[in-house]
Design brief:
single chain, 319 residues, alpha/beta, Rossmann fold, FomD barrel-like fold, 2 domains, 31% helix, elongated
């Protein structure tokens, strides 16, 4: 059971000072670069085709893209649509150059059209066009960032783990993935130092997908390493969760179960459960039933356990 968890970091968008030029004509591309360098405060970055443009935007976020319609392998409209499919680039402004104005294509996409050959006076106006679009883009990004942050805050929930006497022992935050009338699924990350349990270890950055139920005497943590590879499932036998709008409270009943990716099952802490003096009879009865229900769920490969690679041949107990 994670002792403490770190709130997943919120993605931040950084506004750059780059205008991306996608132009296969060397002379015209150099002409654009010189005009932008001399007449604007932005830095031009030119690539000759859409495929290189898609590679570049994995490393930078441009303020504006100027693209030719007739590009090799992928035309400007196709490139524009792929750029705008990326979540952080959905509002990226664009100027498209072509021998003829393609009104039906650019109007639907709010692209500014510039016909070739481009007159010098019109090209120098690119500064005003660029600043107008960058200002609009910046405002849109700030509004989107604020909405994303507000949505992120609303989706966070606090988990409170209690001992059999109802005393809070562990508290951390996670992000809600799914909420139904009887279940909440959250995502959280291991933020403490490495914890070696012998049969597995929890390491910084490990992702926990946690399942809490109001009608089951256990919870389930689906754990993956920072590389995305599943480590296994850690399950706490516990009273049914009490779920509020912004927090989950659950009484831990000492028994735990570890399930490997191949379905090998290890029952943990039975000696602690047997010797504990704080558990009442109702809690002991519920814990035993919860353990039986959980083992049946694992054996049947139900719900999250449907991802088990191969059912283990036996259930083991820790000694």
């Amino acid at each position: 059971m994670p002792d403490n968890q770190e709130q997943p970091s919120t993605e931040k968008h950084i506004i750059g000072k780059t205008i991306l030029i996608v132009e296969d004509d060397d002379s015209f591309g150099e002409f654009l670069c010189q005009a932008i360098s001399q007449e604007t405060l932005h830095q031009p970055l030119r690539v000759p085709d859409g495929f290189q443009a898609l590679q570049v935007i994995t490393e930078i976020t441009p303020d504006l893209v100027i693209l030719d319609y007739y590009l090799p392998g992928m035309n400007g409209i196709e490139l524009y649509d792929q750029l705008h499919a990326a979540r952080r680039l959905e509002h990226l402004p664009a100027i498209m150059t072509s021998p003829g104005v393609l009104e039906h294509d650019i109007q639907d996409r709010h692209i500014v059209g510039m016909s070739k050959p481009v007159e010098l006076t019109k090209l120098l106006d690119i500064r005003a066009i660029a600043y107008q679009f960058v200002l609009r883009y910046t405002i849109v990004c700030l509004v989107a960032s604020n909405k994303h942050q507000a949505s992120k805050e609303q989706s966070m929930i606090t988990v409170v783990k209690q001992n059999p006497l109802g005393e809070a022992k562990v508290q951390y935050q996670g992000e809600i993935v799914e909420r139904t009338s009887h279940k909440v699924i959250i995502q959280a990350y291991w933020s403490r130092t490495t914890k070696n349990l012998g049969y597995t270890s929890f390491e910084p950055g490990d992702r926990f997908i946690e399942y809490y139920y109001t009608n089951r005497w256990f919870n389930i943590f689906d754990i993956a390493g920072i590389d995305g590879e599943r480590k296994g499932w850690y399950c706490n036998i516990a009273e049914p969760a009490v779920i509020f709008d912004n927090r989950i409270e659950q009484v831990d009943l000492l028994l735990d179960v570890w399930v490997t990716p191949k379905g090998e099952t290890l029952i943990l802490d039975e000696d602690e459960f047997a010797s504990d003096t704080t558990l009442n009879e109702e809690q002991r009865k519920g814990a035993r039933q919860g353990l039986r229900d959980l083992l049946e769920m694992i054996a049947a490969q139900q719900e999250t356990f449907a991802n088990i690679e191969h059912i283990g041949t036996e259930t083991k107990r820790e000694f």
